[in-house]
Amino acid sequence: MAQFLVAALYKFVRLDNFRDMQAPLLEVCQNNDVTGTLLLAQEGINGTIAGPEAGIRAVLAYLHADPRLATLTHKESWADKQPFYRMKVKLKREIVTMGIPNVEAETRAGKYVKPEDWNQLITDPDVVVVDTRNDYEVAIGTFKGAVNPETVSFTQFPDWVKQESTDGGVLRQKKKVAMFCTGGIRCEKSTAYLRSQGFDEVYHLEGGILKYLETVPEAQSLWDGECFVFDERVSVVHGLDQGSYELCRACRFPLSDADKLSPHFEAGVSCPHCHDKHTDEQKQRFRERQKQTELAAQRRERHIGAHLEAQKAAKAAAKEKARLAALAGQKGK
């Protein structure tokens, strides 16, 4: 039975004191054995965390106690292994980086479309469907008939919009635009950006692909492939069960079984997507890292992040030692 609850969350909301929120939020997560990454910016919060169910519930309760985050929603799934190695709370200029100021996603996002209504929208011949994710994510799965902007980074999206808004571009050919992404956050920002550029009928999938795969029965689904996720599960399928892809440890590209049969694949060192992009010196470092990882696995130890777990144990031991010393001091009085 899966023992780790995974919660993906975000909310566009003005957080003027986001810097002051960092340390207390990190402490709450660490005290509840929750790992993952949360991003804080003036425009809101974004991230994915995982841990024991009670720990995740405690962190969510802490966030909801802030009136600005009272309506924060999240998407849940389960994992057999802890999908993250450490907990990070980072301060950012944007919770999803587009590089365009004053997009105002909180108030200008497009119209939400619930997962159960999405099929009807994207099969409308007057609608152009756009996948706002990056190219390596689209490569392993997308909605049938969706346009791939072929971006390497979300910062390239505004240039793609500009190009496709000219005569002959896909955004000039249809009256309505429907956009989707993994969890919904990029859609809110991309649809807000389109509206700022004069597009009127702009829609996006509420809750993103993850909510669609959780909600819509596979027999009725228009999703083709698997959905890339940014943790050790790599991909998920309908029902949010773990998918079949693995991650290239050299370039972070999702790998299929066919990719691993390539002569360019070397576990932990290279794959068909990056075999010619690293120097011999880099590959040698990757080989040493892979060797240490395999040795740790043979000893049934975790190589990546093991030192952090040791630090955490040492910290807990020191805390307990200080507590016992304080008790001893009180008895001696």
TrEMBL record:
One Pfam entry name: UPF0176_N
InterPro entries in alphabetical order: Rhodanese-like_dom, Rhodanese-like_dom_sf, TrhO, TRHO_N
EC number(s) per entry: 1.14.-.-
Rhodanese domain boundaries: 123-221
GN (gene name): trhO
Role, per record: Catalyzes oxygen-dependent 5-hydroxyuridine (ho5U) modification at position 34 in tRNAs.
GO BP terms: tRNA modification
Record bears the keyword Phosphoprotein: no
Name of protein: tRNA uridine(34) hydroxylase
Family, per entry: Belongs to the TrhO family.
Organism the protein comes from: Pusillimonas minor
Coiled coil (UniProt feature): none
Gene3D superfamilies hit by this protein: 3.30.70.100, Rhodanese-like domain
Enzyme class: oxidoreductase
This protein's UniProt keywords: Oxidoreductase, Transferase, tRNA processing
Gene Ontology terms for molecular function: oxidoreductase activity, acting on paired donors, with incorporation or reduction of molecular oxygen; transferase activity
Record field: catalytic activity: uridine(34) in tRNA + AH2 + O2 = 5-hydroxyuridine(34) in tRNA + A + H2O
SMART domains named in the record: RHOD
